[in-house]
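Below is how a single chain appears once it has passed through the pipeline. First comes the sequence as given, then the structure the pipeline wrote out for it. We keep one example in the README because the format questions we get most often are answered faster by looking than by reading.
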Amino acid sequence: MNSPRPSGLPELRRPVMIAAFGGWNDAGDAASSAVEHLALTWDATDLREIDGDDFYDYQSNRPTITTVDGVTRRIAWPSTSVSYARLPDADRDVVFVLGPEPNLRWRAFCSQLVELADALDVELVVMMGALLADTPHTRPVPVSGSAETSAAATRFGLSPSKYEGPTGITGVLQDAFVQAGVPSISLWAAVPHYIAHPPNPKATVALLRRLEPIIEVPIPLGRLDQQARDWQEDVDEMMSDDDDMAAYVRDLEEREDDEAGDENPMVEVDGDALAAEFEKYLRRRNEGSD
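Resulting structure:
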């Protein structure tokens, strides 16, 4: 680290980089929404955009057309944006990385971000994600944290990563930072698989609250707290109109209570498998009521 700073880059104080990628890594858009909230709240300044032509398959991540003033049509291409915020009331600044998960050339993509972090003297990277899990919406959102080294785990009160299996760009990028000597950790919110559609402000709030002591900067939640409460009420109301769903949620609550003694009860789950399990549950309930 500490390579000569390229011209045009800002001088930042003890910067922490916070990254989130939409898609496979971000159930309910919870992580992307967390980074967007921070960038807006702290009035982030655009730094650079990673050219999408090199990393996105536009048939998978299609560009979108928008109309401005009913006349001008503009095309927005998938890309990864990098911005930064100076925090006058803190002793550190923040760099944000936000975009859809790239489809192509992940190692080259990660190299660009590692080089930028090196040039900015980033001292910590926090990867944010959200996964579908067998967890009830009625309980506090579980947020798991992991670190790739025991030193980082001890420093931030996290568990060393024990996950084995397929990974997304968050896992690849975290490894790239670790290999480059940049401390990197990840935070993952558990999103109920039966309410996977975005937004999920409750999961977003949970991620931000877990992030706050790590970066040692107060995080204003603004309207997010109220949005999380409204979301909870809306889902509760929906569940109250469906006896089968209400019974299913109670089963999840009981299962969570039974696992309360487990040191690490939250594991990544296959969303398709959970959906199939839920359908089987409903069929059993229907057969039992005949």
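The chain has eight helices and ten strands.

See the next section for the split statistics.
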